[in-house]
Write a structure and sequence with these properties.
The protein has about 350 residues and is α/β, with parallel strands linked by helices. Helices cover about 40% and strands about 20% of the residues. It has one domain: 2-Layer Sandwich (Nucleotidyltransferase, domain 5). It has a seven-stranded mixed β-sheet with strand order 5-2-1-6-9-8-7, sandwiched between helices.
Length: about 350
C-alpha cells in the first residue's frame, strides 16, 4: 500500500500513512458539521469538535471512539447504564419525546468533561463557552434576553453525564480539546451570500474557518478531520488551497462518496476527509452536529420567546421554509411596530 492509498478514509475510520511523524504524543481528531443550512429564519450554525487521542491509538487507523469510550458513551438515548448518547443530531431528536433532551445532555456533558468548567446556567453562558456570537441587540432584538439552562433535563443529570464521560475519556487517555460553534444570522448571512454568490460557498467558508481553528489548536500536532459532504460536491482542493495558501494540498481521492486530502506546511500535516454520513461514522463529527443543532435550537428559543411576549398565543417556529413563512406573516405587526427591516430577519437564500 502506498502512502497515498493509506490516507483514504474507510467506512468508519481514517487510514493515514504509517510514516507520518507525530510532533506530540497525541493526534487531534476533528469533526465538523452544520445545522440550519436550509431554514428561512434563524442562524446557520457550524460546529467543530476536537478530541485529543493518543497517537498509539492510530495503528495507523484512527480509532472508533464509540468503542474506545464505551464505558461512558453510546448511540441510544434509552441506555440502561445512563451513558451519554452521542450520534447524528437528527437521529437523537427522533429518539425522545422531548426533542432537545438528548442533545442538551450530550453537549453540556461534553463541555463539562473538563472538571474546571462550570456547567452553563443560562444560554448566554453556553453561547460564550462554545464561541457562538449572536447579533447585537440593536441589530436583532429578538435575541436580547438570556434564558435559563438546562431547559430539558435536571442539573444533577448533567453532572452525572459529565462524570461518566470524564471517566471514559480519562481511562482512554483522551480529552475533548474543543467544542465550538460558529453562527451566522440572517443579516450577515445575506451580506455574505451577496458577496460569495451562492449558499454552498457561504457554508464552505464557515467550514473552512472551523478547520483553520482546529489546526491552530493542534499547535503542530497531526490533525485528522472528518467533515460531512457539502451537498453533491466532490471537489474541495480549491477551497482548501484558498484557506491554506502557503501549504501544499495533495488530492488523494475524489468520488461520489468520499474526497480526501493531505495538507502540509509550517503548521504540520492535516488530513481532511469529506464523506457522506460523516456524522454516522465519526464521533467528533456527531458531537459537532449535536452542538450546532443545540446552539440553533437555543437561538430559536430566544426568538420565539421575544415574539410571543409581544403576540401572546403565537405558535412558535423552528424557522424552516414552509412554517417560517407562516410565522413571518403572523409577526408582521411586531416587525412593523419594532421597526425591524425584513432583510435583517429573513434569509434571502
Amino acid at each position: 500500500m502506498t502512502s497515498v492509498d493509506a490516507a483514504i478514509l474507510t467506512a468508519t475510520i481514517i487510514d493515514a500513512p504509517t510514516e507520518v511523524a507525530v510532533s506530540t504524543d497525541h493526534v487531534l481528531y476533528v469533526g465538523i458539521d452544520e445545522a440550519g443550512y436550509g431554514p428561512l429564519l434563524g442562524p446557520l450554525c457550524v460546529g467543530m469538535c476536537a478530541v485529543r487521542v493518543p497517537s498509539t491509538q492510530f495503528t495507523p487507523l484512527a480509532p472508533n471512539l464509540w468503542s474506545v469510550l464505551s464505558g461512558g458513551v453510546c448511540r441510544k438515548g434509552n441506555d440502561r447504564r445512563r451513558r451519554v448518547a452521542i450520534d447524528d443530531s437528527k437521529k437523537l431528536k427522533r429518539q425522545d419525546e422531548s426533542p432537545l433532551r438528548l442533545l442538551e445532555r450530550g453537549v453540556l456533558a461534553a463541555l463539562s468533561s473538563n472538571p474546571s468548567f462550570a456547567i452553563p446556567l443560562d444560554d448566554a453562558a453556553y453561547f460564550h463557552a462554545v464561541g457562538a456570537e449572536l447579533p447585537h441587540v440593536d441589530d436583532a432584538p429578538w435575541y436580547q434576553h438570556a434564558l435559563p439552562l438546562p431547559s430539558n433535563i435536571e442539573l444533577p443529570d448533567v453532572r452525572i453525564a459529565a462524570n461518566l464521560l470524564r471517566r471514559a475519556l480519562a481511562k482512554a487517555h483522551c480529552s475533548i480539546a474543543a467544542l465550538r460553534v460558529t453562527t451566522l444570522d440572517a443579516s450577515p448571512f445575506n451580506q455574505l451570500y451577496e458577496r460569495l454568490g451562492n449558499k454552498g460557498a457561504l457554508n464552505m467558508s464557515l467550514v473552512m474557518t472551523q478547520l483553520e481553528a482546529a489546526r491552530e489548536l493542534a499547535q503542530g500536532a497531526r490533525v485528522i478531520a472528518a467533515i460531512d459532504r457539502q451537498g453533491g460536491r466532490a471537489e474541495y482542493a480549491h477551497a482548501l488551497q484558498s484557506k491554506f495558501p502557503h501549504d501544499s494540498v495533495l488530492v488523494i481521492k475524489e468520488d461520489d462518496d468520499l474526497s480526501t486530502y493531505r495538507i502540509e506546511g509550517a503548521q504540520g500535516k492535516l488530513d481532511v476527509a469529506f464523506a457522506t454520513r460523516s456524522e454516522d461514522r465519526h464521533l467528533p463529527t456527531a458531537l459537532a452536529s449535536m452542538a450546532a443543532k443545540y446552539t440553533r435550537e437555543l437561538a430559536m428559543r430566544r426568538m420565539n420567546a421575544w415574539f410571543l411576549a409581544r403576540q401572546p398565543g403565537l405558535e412558535p417556529t423552528a424557522g424552516y421554509v414552509e412554517d417560517g413563512r407562516r410565522f413571518l406573516a403572523q409577526v408582521q405587526p411586531t416587525l412593523v411596530l419594532e421597526r425591524v427591516p425584513e432583510r435583517t430577519f429573513v434569509r434571502m437564500a
